[in-house]
Amino acid sequence: MSWGALRGVGRDQRKLMADLSTAVSRRIDIPADPPLVFQALCLAMSERRSGRPIVLVERAFPEEASGTTGLWLDTKEQDIIVLEESLEPDHKLVVLGHELWHVEAGHRHDLGGAAVAARAALAGHQDWPEIARTIAARSHSHQADEVDAERFGILMGSSMGRWLATPGTRRLDDVARRIGESLGYSGPQGN
Ligand SMILES: [Zn+2]
């Protein structure tokens, strides 16, 4: 298995990874249950951003959302990260890392009212499939940003994967696939 995708990791990504690792390991005893690790990561990221809340939500994305497994919604009061609920924990970690890099780098998508609608849909469990499709189509569309975000997701998966107390049995397959996709990136995949 090759970690070739990590060759291009820049100093800023390594620094963020080191900072988040330190913050998480101070907050919880590792290894820990995956939801605890994810929550600690979001809290650590929130602290970097002057306490602006980062809310983590898990939902099923509709199949029509072009394979989307994660989204970042930038609303007025908070950031919301949505992860595909059916993923193995270690795959979720990679997707969470991907979205956290979008947050860190300020890769804003012009979602306008769609972000607010999505927030309401997430709260009420209504209209979520339709809104997820709309937002997925507008997110993850800038290729250079996607390559950077995916690289950070893979870095997080490789750095913190062992911190998950119940690693998924498909870990190697999931991560290897994402590395392969990252290396052979051929346009927006919406993941
Ligand atoms: Zn992305």
Give an account of the 3D structure.
The chain contains seven helices and three strands; from the N terminus they run ααβββααααα. By secondary structure, it is mainly alpha-helical. It has one domain (9-178). Strands 1-3-2 form a three-stranded mixed β-sheet, sandwiched between helices. The protein is globular and about 35 Å long. The model is unreliable at 186-191 (pLDDT under 50). Zinc ion (ZN) binds next to α3 and α6.
Helix content: 40-55%
Total beta strands: 3
Average pLDDT value?
Answer: 84
Provide the succession of SSEs. HHEEEHHHHH
Listed once per kind, the bound small molecules are: zinc ion
Beta-strand level of the residues, as a percent range?
5-15%
Strand order of the largest sheet: 1-3-2
Give the CA-based shape: globular
Uncertain parts: 186-191
Ends: how far apart? 21 Å
Radius of gyration: 15 Å
Number of H- or I-type helical stretches = 7
Number of domains: 1
Sheet/helix structural class: mainly alpha
Major sheet, described briefly? 3 strands, mixed
Concise summary:
This protein is mainly alpha-helical and 191 residues long. The protein has helices at 11-27, 34-48, 89-105, 113-124, 128-138, 143-160, 171-183, and strands spanning 54-59, 70-74, 79-84.
Question: What are its keywords?
Answer:
191 residues; mainly alpha; 7 helices; binds zinc ion
